[in-house]
Amino acid sequence: MMNNINPGIIFIMAIVVLLILFVIITGIIQFYNEFVAELEYLNSEIERTDGEERAYWSFRRRRLWLSLLPFVKY
Questions:
Q1: What is the CB neighbour count within 10 angstroms for residue 42?
Q2: What is the mean predicted confidence (pLDDT) over 14-33?
Q3: What is the DSSP letter of 49?
Q4: Cα-based angle 35, 33, 64 (whole degrees, multiple of 5)
Q5: Coil, helix or strand for 2?
Q6: What is the pTM of this model?
């Protein structure tokens, strides 16, 4: 069965797979950068505030971490 596959088709399939992997990796890197930036912002707000406002920012940080689960929205 493998002897009947055209090498040109295999090359095109390899290019498509590489493009898909590139898009997925780029998306993961972008998500990671946005997540870390938001986490740093929330941590700085937690350090800056106290009392009820600190509880709000802690809640936001907890929601950010929970947003890694697919069924929880941030």
A1: 19
A2: 97
A3: -
A4: 0
A5: helix
A6: 0.76
